[in-house]
Amino acid sequence: MSSFASKSVFSALFAFFLTAPLHAEMSLTSADIAPDTTIGDAFVFNGFGCTGPNTSPALAWEGAPEGTNSYIVNVYDPDAPTGSGFWHWAVFDLPASVTELPQGAASALPEGAMQARNDYSANDWGGPCPPEGDTPHRYVFTVYAMPQEKLGIDETASGAVVGFFAHTSSLDSASFTATYGR
Q1: E strands present in 122-171
Q2: Which among 4, 43, 97, 113 would be 20 to 30 A from 51, CA to CA?
Q3: Do the domain assignments include residue 16?
Q4: What is the DSSP code string of 46-94?
Q5: What is the helix (H) or strand (E) element at residue 11, kind and residue range?
Q6: Is the CA virtual torsion 127, 133, 136, 140 positive or negative?
Q7: Is 29 a domain residue?
Q8: What one-character DSSP code corresponds to residue 38?
C-alpha cells in the first residue's frame, strides 16, 4: 500500500470515529439477584404451594439509546410446563426518566407506569414457584428501551401482549437470567 493510500485510510477511519455516534449498550442489574444465581426466598410467590412474600426485586438499567421514550420490564419463565412459558411480571409505559425500580416496586410503580396481567392472573409481580421436583427453572429479567411514550394498551393486557410490543418495536434491550427450584 502506498504512503498516500495508507494516510487516506487512516484519515477516513479517524474522521469516522470522530463523527460516528457512540452506541451505548444497555445493561440490566439487580442488587437483589445476581445473574446466573439462584433467586432468594424473599421473591418467591405466595400461592400454588409456595409460601414466599412475593416481593419484586430491585432492578436498575443504563445505556439506553437515543430516542428512548419509555421502558418495558418483564420477567419470563421459559421452562414452565405450559407449552408457552410463564409471564411473572410485565411493567410497561415506564417513563424514560426512570432507570431503576426499588425492591417492592410492584406495589408502588412510578407515575404513568402500568402492570399487565401476569400468568397468575394478577396485575402484579408474581414470584417464582415452579412445580415441586422440577429441574430449577430459568427466570429471564429483561428491560426494553421503547421509542413510544405509551404502548396504547391498558392493565387488561397480558404479559404476552406486552412482550409482542417489546419484541417488535424496542430500540435495544438488556437481560439476565437467574434460577429457582423447589
Answers
A1: 137-146
A2: 113
A3: no
A4: EETTEE---PPPPEEEE-PPTT--EEEEEEEETTSTTTT-EEEEEEEEE
A5: helix 3-19
A6: negative
A7: yes
A8: B
